[in-house]
Design brief:
Length: about 120
Amino acid sequence: QVQLVESGGGLVQPGGSLRLSCVGSGITLDYYAIGWFRQVPGKEREAVLCIDRNDASSYYMDSVQGRFTISRDNAARSVYLQMNSLKPEDTAVYYCAAATRRCTVVADWYHVWGQGTQVTVSS
């Protein structure tokens, strides 16, 4: 069974940090571009950033530049989202997803999705 599983979400105070993990099962992540998306209730899922097969990162939200980074560990079948200096507006469900072609903001191009992990930034 091909699946992605996110973990690492939780409740954190403003200014804090979290590292989200995306682990692949039945899928070799180094063959894919892996994107992180987030969604808040009532809004569409938005692309945050992505790492391609050559480990190049693409940022899709100006608000996370300088605070979020993405990395991969192919041996561990994992992609990570390091989130620093978290703000209340970062509160969302975060999803990882795999695309066979390249990094893109278009959610429909990602054909494997995780179940999401909740991140809540609040004092």
